[in-house]
Amino acid sequence: MPSRDRTAPAEPESVDDRDPPAGPAIDEEARGMLEAHVQQMAEKGKVLYRCGLDNGTRSGTFFAPTLIEIDSIDVMELVILLEKDYQVFIDSKELGAEVLKSVRAMADFIEAKQGRA
User: Fold this and answer.
1) pLDDT > 80? residue 58
2) I need a surface site. Which of 16, 63, 105, 109 has the fewest CB within 10 A?
3) pTM for the complete prediction?
């Protein structure tokens, strides 16, 4: 795989790699919090890619999907937060890799552990 500048947006490699649709935030305050977090991560050089908004999503509370790099300390803090706030335990590296691969995977894991799946 050829190396590329990590700060440059990745070029889609196929139709399946195109920008996912933007989703609306709950309200303007929530969107503002998300945008502030992305700005903080950008200042640290951790924003790897940010999808654009099309004309239909430029107004309102839409938030562009954003890929943010997390390091091992961030992962450890996330695991501690999940265990403390949701009383679920990630007891192996393999389980952690599966659970932390996406927000949906984390939500599914929490719901299953809390008997809500």
Assistant:
1) no
2) 16
3) 0.52
Q: Are residues 44 and 83 in the same domain?
A: no
Residue 49 CA: distances (Å) to CA of 57, 74, 108 = 18, 18, 25
Q: HSE-up of 22 (CA within 13 Å, CB side)?
A: 20
Quick one: which of 72, 77, 62, 80 has its CA closest to 25? 62
- Both 13 and 29 in a single domain? yes
Supply 84's token pair.
């403390």
In three-state secondary structure terms, 99 is helix
Q: Specify whether 65 is located in the same domain as 78.
A: no
Mean pLDDT of the chain: 79
Domain that holds residue 41: 1-69
- The tokens for 77 are 């803090």
